[in-house]
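Reminder: ligand-aware prediction takes two inputs, not one.
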Amino acid sequence: QTEHFNWDSYLRETESLAAPSQCFRQSKIPPTNEFKIGMKLEARDPRNVTSVCIATVIGITGARLRLRLDGSDNKNDFWRLVDSSDIQPIGTCEKKGGMLQPPLGFQMNASSWPMFLLRTLNGAEMAPATFFKKEPPKPAPNLLKIGMKLEAIDKKNPYLICPATVGDVKGDEVFITFDGWRGAFDYWCKYDSRDIFPVGWCGLTGDALQPPGNNVSITKSSAKTQSSPSKVTRRSMQSPQKTVPIPAQRGKKPGRAKPPGQTSV
Ligand code: MLZ
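Here is what comes back for the chain with N-methyl-lysine:
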């Protein structure tokens, strides 16, 4: 369980190193999240990135916002950091000479968009400009190396941030492997992706870091009594692709267990 996952012990037991924070396009001190549920803002439509739409904050998690595009359904929520360049205060689009667009899958007739927009913004609580933080610069060059540990967003379940390992590096691309999940959630991304974080990020933001898939729970005390994990254990922790996840509390089939109350994407 989340509270029992301890990076220090885990790094020791897996004899691995955390990727240094300079590797990431994240601020050293996570930005403060001042947003409140219900506030509206402008956001790039993740499914149609040329469109800027109206979004409502429907959840707050660490330095991220759970967003839903106004006029869209509740099946396409997405998460953005408060210092993401994908979000901006209401009015920004117009100031730049742009037009707010209906989201992909706008639930009403397209002709009703102008009126819908007017009604949506009328009396809405708009997130103040000071809540939006400046996106950190790209670190150059790619300093991530195979084997380094990090925290990464599970793109199939983007509300989750999980312990991960750099599985491969090819130029600016890094292969993110999720510890204990046999490759099902792994992905390639740019080293400057906003979806990857240094070890300790969740601890700083108050986000719940998911435990590794096989639920190896190594607490300080067990680390003391057991100076070195068995070959098998260590191997399983180092090679997530080879492990059989035992998501005990999450039940059901290995690798497909659903946390209660959440749907997998
Ligand atoms: N609902 C998902 C959660 C798995 C999360 C894995 N993260 C790397 C499942 O059990 O399939």
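Residues 154, 157, 160, 162, 178, 181, 185, 256-258, 264 surround N-methyl-lysine (CB under 6 Å). The two ends are 22 Å apart (CA to CA). We will return to this case in the review session.
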